[in-house]
TrEMBL record:
<dbReference type="InterPro" id="IPR011447">
    <property type="entry name" value="DUF1552"/>
</dbReference>
<feature type="signal peptide">
    <location>
        <begin position="1"/>
        <end position="30"/>
    </location>
</feature>
<protein>
    <recommendedName>
        <fullName>Secreted protein containing DUF1552</fullName>
    </recommendedName>
</protein>
<dbReference type="Pfam" id="PF07586">
    <property type="entry name" value="HXXSHH"/>
</dbReference>
<dbReference type="InterPro" id="IPR006311">
    <property type="entry name" value="TAT_signal"/>
</dbReference>
<feature type="coiled-coil region">
    <location>
        <begin position="205"/>
        <end position="232"/>
    </location>
</feature>
<keyword id="KW-0732">Signal</keyword>
<keyword id="KW-0175">Coiled coil</keyword>
Length: 467
């Protein structure tokens, strides 16, 4: 007799002294639907990944251009990856590489200020300009799909926390433009996703509910005595309380649901950036597991902070260099482009490994493979040295969302800025050689394909039809 997933007795998997692991999502059982019912639609996932410091941009007349330029050579479906990019060759047919896109509000801003606005397109500015951000792409999608999973989104970075204005450690921002703290410790991420300490969760949630009710009552009484400006501040506070209420109610719904069971033995959860390659692999593996178990369908990972600050700058030690950021400053030196390109190649190796792993995994309880139903954005908000134009962007996956994969969308052509920094003026201060498309056009296109009913995002002027 067919058996539905929600009829399986999972209590035997929850025994233990407050800590337990439970059932994974079994594709073989999920496929046993009652005759006459519609099969469940494939999930649609979004992953966004950011790396700092831009990419190698030698000019065409430079001998390093052939091997160490980040952008491919060619256009459309006829393009070749350089040595910097060739680790992605096994998944080339599952990629869309894009050039000539950037955020209009940031094109005349120093590149180190740009991670904050990579997923928001906001005017976060530079210098003495007032800092103000908006909601990030991932959180727009999390609002659309987050109720369907235990965690609305997974926010990660190598440096952890929120960082500072224009020195962010997170690329995720809520609907008020407030930074969402990122987690950087593999064990804490794993425990959050897969280890349940449930002894008094119900009691804590009841107390949280009671405390939130009291806050609302007190706030409404206070409002009557406040100025207009203070009332706006209070309204923001009340909105935060409402968001907390939503999280409490969601937590209550998931309280009795078993956590998925995964084999954590292959993972070294005590890693730090002192083991940079293994650390990066583990962070990607945690996102893979979160997606595979349908714990969340939205994830962000800021691989590094701009400006050479923080533990993320140590990742270059994976390929024999001391600090990552200084490589972008030293491209005028002998082998400078090769050294910078070697570091970017390392990032592409680990990203490509993650993409290939999703492709090799059949969709649990669905059709195709996991990559077919997962849209991945990988990029930076700088290209040449500190240049806030022509962002290096790669989309991967999304085949079952209608993306035309295996192509290079070369909007910039050969009309781009680049070359080594010679220690004088910087490219971001120069007049642009061409006009970039708004990156938000790509984001609007992505949201549409992910099923969000929208025609726009931030300052978009349309969607990109060619992808």
């Amino acid at each position: 007799m067919p058996q539905k997933m929600n009829t399986i007795d999972r209590r035997r998997f929850l025994r233990g002294s407050g800590t337990a692991l439970a059932l994974p999502m079994f594709g073989s059982l999920a496929a046993r639907v009652v005759a006459g019912t519609e099969p469940k639609a494939n999930p649609k996932r979004l992953g966004c990944f950011y790396f700092p410091d831009g990419v190698p941009m030698p000019l065409p007349e430079d001998p390093a251009y052939k091997d160490w330029a980040w952008f491919p050579h060619g256009d459309g479906s006829e393009f070749a990856l350089t040595k910097c990019m060739e680790p992605l060759d096994p998944v080339k047919d599952d990629l869309i590489v894009l050039s000539g896109l950037s955020h209009p509000k940031s094109r005349s801003v120093h590149g180190h200020n740009n991670a904050d606005q990579f997923l928001t397109a906001a005017l976060t500015g530079g210098g003495d300009k007032e800092y103000e951000n908006t909601i990030s792409l991932d959180q727009v999608y999390a609002k659309h799909v987050g109720d369907q999973t235990r965690f609305s989104s997974l926010v990660m970075s190598t440096d952890g926390g929120t960082g500072t204005a224009r020195g962010t450690h997170t690329i995720s921002f809520d609907h008020h433009g407030r930074p969402i703290p990122a987690e950087h410790r593999p064990k804490q991420i794993f425990d959050q996703l897969f280890v349940n300490s449930d002894v008094d969760s119900a009691r804590r949630l009841a107390l949280s509910r009671s405390a939130l009710d009291e806050m609302q009552d007190d706030a409404q009484r206070l409002r009557k005595s406040l100025s207009t400006a203070d009332q706006r501040s209070l309204d923001e506070y009340l909105d935060s309380v409402r968001q907390a209420e939503i999280k409490v109610e969601k937590a209550k719904r998931w309280l009795g649901a078993p956590l998925p069971s995964v084999d954590g033995d292959p993972l070294n959860l005590e890693l730090t950036t002192d083991e940079p390659r293994e650390y990066l692999q583990t962070m990607f593996d945690l996102i893979y597991l979160a997606f595979k178990t349908d714990s969340t369908r939205v994830a962000t990972y800021q691989i590094g902070r701009e400006n050479g600050v923080g533990r993320s700058d140590h990742l270059a030690r994976a390929v024999g260099f001391n600090l990552a950021h200084q490589l972008s400053h030293e491209t005028k030196n002998p082998d400078g482009w090769k050294n910078f390109g070697t570091y970017c190649r390392f990032l592409n190796e680990e990203y490509g490994r993650f993409v290939a792993k999703l492709k090799a995994t059949p969709e649990p309880g669905g059709t195709g493979n996991m990559l077919d139903n997962t849209l991945l954005l990988f990029g930076s908000a700088s290209s040449a040295f500190h240049l806030s134009r022509n962002y290096p962007i790669i989309l991967a996956g999304g085949k079952q969302m209608g993306f035309k994969l295996g192509q290079y969308f070369n909007h910039a052509g050969l009309n781009f800025q680049g070359g080594p920094w010679m220690g004088k003026g910087e490219p971001w201060q120069d007049e642009a050689k061409g006009e970039d498309l708004p990156l938000s056009n790509l984001y609007a296109t992505m949201l549409q394909r992910l099923g969000v009913p929208t025609d726009s995002f931030a300052d978009s002027t349309g969607i990109i039809q060619d992808i």
